[in-house]
Amino acid sequence: VQLVESGGGSVQFGGSLRLTCVVSGWPFSRSAMSWVRQRPGMRLETVASILSSSSETYVGDSMKGRFDISRDNARNTLYLQMNNLKPEDTGVYYCTNQWYPIKDDGNWYRSTERGQGVQVTVSS
Q: What integer is the mean pLDDT of 88-93?
């Protein structure tokens, strides 16, 4: 299984970024997917999740109205559109192959596959 994220970078407060994750070696079109982030000094946090058919999505409370998750099953690709970025969004963002990729204690489930992560830095 290979998940390759791209699209991270440095932006100013209020800016936008679009993260992309290309998946191979996994039945992407039949799998729920999620984005997870690790902010400095904080636990892993599920940012957004999407079912295989895109019929249902989840976005974390602090990101609702700013972030949008989508997917293109024909291209085995997952997206995260991030608008109105804030300094507290700074962190490493991971693409994962689960609806529930992390446990309540903030650690990864053993079954979760993830990419190498991309850095997102938002300056004030």
A: 98
Distance CA 57, CA 99 (A): 9
Question: Rounded to whole angstroms, how far apart are CA atoms 28 and 44?
Answer: 23
Contacts of 29 (CB under 8 A, 6+ apart): 52, 73, 76
Q: pLDDT tens, 41-74? A: 999 999 999 999 989 999 999 999 999 999 999 9
3-class state of residue 88 by DSSP: helix
**CA dihedral of residues 98, 102, 104, 110 (deg, nearest 10):** 100
The pair of structure tokens assigned to 108 is 């990864």
List the structure tokens of 8. Answer: 């991270």
Q: Is 55 helix (H, G, I), strand (E, B) or coil?
A: coil
Distance CA 88, CA 98 (A): 24
pLDDT band, very low/low/confident/very high, at 16 (cuts 50, 70, 90): very high
